Every structure is written in structure tokens, then in C-alpha cells.
Amino acid sequence: MQRLSGLDASFLYFETPTMHMHVCATIVVDPSTMPGGYSFETLKGHIAGRLHLVPPFRRRLAHVPFNLAHPVWVEDAHFDLDYHVRRIGCPAPGSEDQLAELAGDVASRPLDRTKPLWEMWVVEGLENGYIAIVAKMHHATIDGVSGANMLVHLLDLEPNPAPRPEPDEWTPERKPSDVELVGKALVHRLTKPVAGVRVAAQTIGSVVKFVRTRMSLTRPGMATPLTAPRTSFNTTITPHRKVAYARISLDDVKMVKNAFGTTVNDVVLAVTAGALRRYLEENKELPDKSLLAVVPVSVRPDDGDKSTSANRVSAMFSSLATDIEDPVERLMHIHEANKGAKEEHKAIGADMLQNWAEFAAPTTFSLAARLYSSMRLAERHPVIHNLVISNVPGPNLPLYFGGAKLVALYPLGPIFDGAALNITVLSYMDAMNWGFISCRETVPGLWNLAAAVGDSIAELRKAAEAANRTITLPETTSVEP
Predict the structure, then answer these.
(1) Is residue 153 domain-shared with residue 202, that is, in the same domain?
(2) How, if at all, do strands 85-89 and 22-30 pair?
(3) Which pTM does this prediction carry?
């Protein structure tokens, strides 16, 4: 038995019939490399053989009576792999658009909380003989980094790896009784007053540090929430999801990064900003003020994470400089603002969100979330932020899923009332894979936005090539005396 952290549990409390708090991924693989050829049963058998390496796959929620404390994870004595791994065919010709339609449909359906909170849909019949796995897992179980780490246990470095030792026969742990759950919850509650005083003191110190840091900055800092301009995707959402994909060259991103002395994350945000400018201009709704993005930040320590929390994440508010027309000027503004934002984020403290989330009240938070959605309050107050953008570093070497070579991996995050668009980017080999997910009714032209990513990186690459020529010109040109 393991109690959810406050942050993990918050993703349960904030979930409503329209705001699904699961994360998804579309994994495209080439089955031609599978020893003995592809079959659905072989792929399912591969997953079955790795279950012992991924404990979250066989655990479900157990709620504490009267909501006295956050829920706990318990092993599911009735775990049924056939329920979680499903098979579906993609209509001919199995294009990327049709795959995205299937992924959007899967993302539109909430997970069953009486079972382990994950599903995998194996999609057959894609172009080029490819298949895909559309994976869905609740955010209470993973964040971006822990999700990537979990995938490591399902992926291999070669199509036919050496056999692993057979795991011991799995015997689920005994489910705790309601009396045990209440007893442990009461003990847990006794520590809250002391923890509350400590967190309050830390918060006061963080506020002082933040104010000092902001006053000392000579560059732009973190964008201010509730100052974002309103767009068509800053409204109340429905349960229906739309998905789109894009891929760009990682070398192009690194070229831009090196030419202008920025970071990969700066370039990702600048490419996104350029794509959003094109999309909004085409729809005649580009605001005069810059869009504001929430950028999740992993706060997992580099020397290993002793915490049992699935989510070790904080967030920065970042200006996308969409009010700046020149792409290079936009990139440099984002770069400078992000440096200031990182200093301010450091002053606040990495554990601030994690610490305060421990005091989330299940019933109060759940009722507030439903009231917020039903009353469409996101449309009645200033826009907190326009969208969420995540950038997760991925592997730079080829990987295999049950012997099938991984071709692309598109991550898809959750969307919220007031922010009906999520863009998540993950690098793999020599490409950066962009996953777009939105409310279907709010952002119907999502593929137009995805297509604009290619145009956006192209203009930055062109500027980088010009900058490189300018830099190397004195070294390559001889001047007559």
C-alpha cells in the first residue's frame, strides 16, 4: 500500500467529465524487425513479460472512507491484461491523419477508476506496414519524466535481446480494510499541522526571495498569470479531443540554438510561437499582446529521487513573444525572459507546488472543479495562461518495442478549462516529435497549427544559416592589400 502524494491526488480531484486528467502517447513502430514476424499476441506477451518491472500497471486506487486522507495505491487482485491491452484496426489507407483520429477518440474517454489507470490500444493497418500503440495513463500515476522512465522498461536496445530471468509468480498484496485505511489516515492527519507551519514559513521565505530576485533582474522575468490575451482556445472545454502530429529535424533545432546562443527549450518555444502566430493570423485573431504559456519543469534531483510521488514537477509562466514579428528577435526575447524566469523559479523553490498540494481537500477540490466547469467560469475572469507547452528530452539511439523498431513517439498532455490546447515535444534519434491535443470543438484546425511548425523552424533555420555565414565570412574571405 502506498499513499498518493498531494500533487498526484490533485489530478484526481480536478478531473471532471470534460477535463480528463490522463496523458497519452502515440508510439509508431515498424513490425518488420520483429523476430518471427508480427502478431498481436506476441506484442501483448511482451507487455505481460515486463509487468513486474512496472508496478503501476497492476495497482489501482483505494479511497479512504470519508476522504480523511489522499487515496492509496493497492495491487489489483483481479488484474486482467486483456482489459488493458486492446486491438483495433485503422481504416484504409491508414494515414497519419486517421491514426490521429483514433488517438483523439481514445483520449476523449476517461479511465475506469475501479481498475489500474492505464490502457494500450494496438492499432493495425497503418501505411508502410507500420503499427501504433496509443497509450493512455492517468496523470496521478506519471508525469513527463517518470512516463519516459517507465517506457524504458518496455523498450529494448535491439530487436532480439537476451532473454531476461523469469519473474517470480505474482501474488497481489492483501487489500487493507476500511478500518486500517481510517487508522492510517488519522495518523497521517496528525502530522499536518506541523507540516503546515513548516510550509507556511518556507513560503514566506520564498516570497521574499522572489521579490528580491525580481527587483534585481536586469532582464525580463517570469510572465505574470492572469495577464494573457484571450483567444478562441481560452474557453470552457468539452470531453471531445482532437489530435495532430508534427516532426522536425533535431539538427535544425541545434543549428538555431548554436547560431544564436540559446537553449533547445528556447528554440522549441520560439518554433511554437511562430506556428501560433501563423495559425492565429490565418484565423484573424492574433492578439496585440504576447501569448503566455505554462511550461512544466521537472524538479527531480539529479542524484536520484527517493520520493514515491509519481509527479515531481513545477511550472514556469513563459512569454512566447507572439507580438514580435521578426523570428530571431522573438527567439532572443524568449531566451532572455526564460533566463529571468529560471532565476525567479529557483527563488520560489522547486518543492513549493509539491508541498502545498499535500493540503488539497478531496471533496472541496472536486466540487470546486465541477462547479468551475459547469458555470463556465474560465470565460468570466482574465485568462490565466493560453496553453501548456512541454519539452521532454528523449533517447538518441534506436529502440524496439517487442522487437518492432520505434519510428516515432508523439506525447499528448491534458487540456483544461480556459486552456484548450496542449503541445508536448519529445526528441527521439534525429527528430523532434510534436504532439498536439485540443478540444475538438475549440481548435478544429489543429492540423493547420501542426503544419505551421515546419514553416516556423524553416524561417529560424534560414536566419541561422545567414548568421553562420556572417560569422565565418572574415575567416574565409581574403582581402587584397
Answers:
(1) no
(2) unpaired
(3) 0.90
